[in-house]
Amino acid sequence: xxxxxxxxxxALFSGTVAYAAGPHSHADKPLxxxxxxxxxxxxxELVAQKDKLRLYMRDHGKKVDVSNATATLTLLNGxxxxxxALVPQG
Length: 90
Prior knowledge:
The protein is 13% helix and 41% strand. The chain is mainly beta.
């Protein structure tokens, strides 16, 4: 489910997704215990916890300013679909 959520979240930001283990990525490791994927030189790390989801973004190791960003995460579980709004924090 974490990988599917990551793929869905990244699809909202970019039409092309390269996975961290893919041939063209620099294989960044998670800094927050999540799943990392890369799209357009931005590393996305999705961290799923019991009661919350966090999406961290880095551009060549530097935090990305998401203060004006909006995103929707689509969670799929079989035929069930749930959409969750992601809001900037910090």
